[in-house]
Write a structure and sequence with these properties.
Elements (H helix, E strand, L loop, with lengths): L16 H15 L3 E8 L10 E6 L4 E6 L1 H4 L11 E11 L4 E11 L2 H17 L17 E6 L4 H13 L3 E6 L7 H14 L11 E6 L13 H8 L5 E5 L7 H5 L2 E2 L3 H8 L3 H36 L3 H40 L2 H94 L1 H5 L5 E3 L17 E6 L2 E6 L30
Parallel strand pairs: 3-5, 6-7, 6-8, 8-9, 9-10
Antiparallel strand pairs: 1-2, 1-4, 2-3, 4-5, 11-12, 12-13
Helix pairs in contact: 4-8, 5-6
């Protein structure tokens, strides 16, 4: 509320900056609570990290700041794009932080069909520049798919037309991925469905489709807008499974039609592209079977005629065996005479050899063999004698060598004994020197230990207190009343019972013979 100053020269109310800004804001919001503004989007860089979107709306003469809050942005049917002409519905308000006024947009739509077509064309050029519409990326459709995935609404007439057409042509397994084919979330659902079919594993519980059909019935440009979504186009272009787009009627074109591997004019046409006609295939197979059977018959007839011609060119069995038979007959005729002549020749040669064998010849042969044996024995005796002589000479040489060995051993033993004596002497000297050094070091360490030991402190009237576990007690707080403690003095150790009563005077010490005070050792030299 404005405040009046008593010393003000005028009666005009003074406002604070916050009060003035709030008043202006209420005035603007009351006057422009709900407006529709037409303009071109400028400065749009996508949603902020907070989820809100900030940009401007302008025309050829003016400019106004605009903001779309996160909750409204997620529900927009058409997302803002740079340079897009739109009609924005919302309310005008002010931003006190910078003294600006802005429109808070609650709804956004393109400014007419011409703007939508311009937006589609701009998006088409952008995606085409990335190569998403290239023919080289498109895949061939399988001739006979076993499983077909259909992305469409499960309640519309489109899915029934597709299933009916597939059933008539070639019944195969069909998997339907239900999506919304119209509305704000249509594009995202279709993109996720295409990616979901591609994510199926081969050999998994649900068989991966061999072909995908994205289908929707006809409608206006706004109704088909979800299939112009950039996410849908990218999902179709990146699909590893061949994809047929059947969106709208034959005259309706969307951006998914450019990215798909094949465009069908209608959903029914997509089903016809997907599978062949089973009856036509059966007729074609029957025709091919008949042609194959006829070709086999003709081939067999040709092979039979060729075999008969080759058989006529072959000679008969009698003509082949005639010459061997003649040779056999001639050989049989001459075999008896040949055997008689061979026997006579063998008998004649035997008689000639028998005439040469006489007792005198045998005796002379035996004597000759005996002489050869005696000669060999004499040669062996001479060789043995030479070997024995050689061995005797080698033994004599070894005996001479062995006779000289004791003398050498005696000399070697003398030298070794002298060397051993010298080593023993040097070892004794070294051990004596080492022991002296160790004794001096040990004495120095003993003196150091004695000077640093707590027992030297006990000799000056101090004592060490320990508990029953032999743990040293350094403070009175560590001693519990009623526990036994051990007190170590310089000349021994005594036990005592701890008490918490400080008023009890210590008992008088009984006189005893004064022990001879041990002489305190000096510190000594550390060296």
């Amino acid at each position: 509320m404005p405040s009046l100053l008593d010393d003000s020269p005028t009666n005009a109310a003074e406002f604070t900056v916050t009060e003035l800004s709030g008043s202006i804001r209420r005035t603007v919001e009351d006057a422009f609570g709900n407006v529709r503004v037409r303009g071109e989007i400028s400065g749009y860089r996508g949603p902020h990290s907070s989820g809100h979107a900030y940009f401007s709306l302008k025309d050829d003469k003016a400019r106004i700041e605009a903001v779309i809050w996160k909750g409204v942005f997620s529900r927009l049917k058409y997302r803002p794009e740079e340079g897009m002409e739109v009609i924005a519905t919302g309310k005008v308000t002010t931003y006190a932080g910078s003294s600006k006024y802005q429109i808070v947009i609650e709804a956004l739509e393109p400014a007419g069909a011409g703007a939508l077509m311009a937006l589609i064309e701009e998006r088409r050029r952008k995606l085409a520049a990335e190569g998403l519409f290239d023919e080289a990326r498109k895949q061939l459709l399988p001739y006979m798919p076993m499983v077909i995935g259909v992305v469409t609404s499960p309640t519309g007439a489109v899915i029934r037309d597709i299933l009916h057409r597939i059933e008539d042509r070639f019944p195969v397994h069909v998997i339907v991925w239900p999506v919304r084919v119209q509305g704000d979330t249509s594009g995202d659902e279709v993109a996720r469905a295409i990616a979901g079919f591609n994510a199926f594993e081969k050999g998994g519980p649900i068989r991966r489709p061999d072909l995908i059909i994205v289908a929707r019935g006809g409608g206006s440009l706004e109704d088909l807008w979800g299939f112009n979504d950039e996410a849908v186009v990218r999902a179709a272009a990146q699909s590893d499974i061949p994809l047929i787009s059947a969106v709208g009627h034959e005259t309706d074109w969307t951006l998914i039609d450019h990215a798909s591997d094949r465009r069908a004019p209608t959903p029914t046409g997509a089903a016809e592209m997907a599978v062949p006609v089973k009856a036509d295939l059966e007729a074609h197979v029957a025709t091919l079977a008949a042609r194959l059977k006829s070709a086999q018959s003709r081939t067999l007839d040709r092979r039979r005629e060729a075999l008969r011609g080759l058989a006529r060119a072959l000679p008969t069995l009698d003509s082949v065996l005639a010459l061997p038979r003649q040779r056999l007959d001639r050989s049989a005729q001459s075999l008896g005479r040949a055997l008689e002549l061979n026997t006579a020749n063998r008998r004649r040669r035997f008689e000639q050899q028998a005439a040469r064998v006489t007792p005198i010849a045998l005796v002379s042969a035996i004597r000759e063999k005996h002489q050869q044996v005696r000669d060999k024995i004499a040669r062996m005796d001479r060789v043995q004698e030479r070997r024995l002589d050689a061995l005797k000479s080698r033994l004599e040489r070894h005996a001479q060598i062995l006779a000289s060995v004791p003398r050498r051993l005696t000399d070697t033993q003398g030298r070794g004994r002298e060397r051993l004596t010298d080593l023993v002497r040097r070892t004794d000297n070294a051990l004596t020197l080492m022991l002296d050094q160790r004794k001096r070091g040990l004495a120095a360490q003993a003196r150091m230990l004695q000077s640093l030991s707590y027992q030297s402190v006990l000799g000056r009237g101090y004592a060490v207190i320990r508990d029953s576990d032999r743990k040293v007690l350094a403070r009175a707080a560590e001693v519990d009343a009623g526990t036994m403690i051990a007190i170590e003095f310089a000349d021994g150790e005594v036990s005592a019972l701890a008490s918490s009563d400080q008023s009890i005077s210590a008992p008088k010490k009984q006189p005893r013979a004064k022990a001879a005070k041990p002489k305190e050792p000096g510190q000594g030299s550390l060296f």
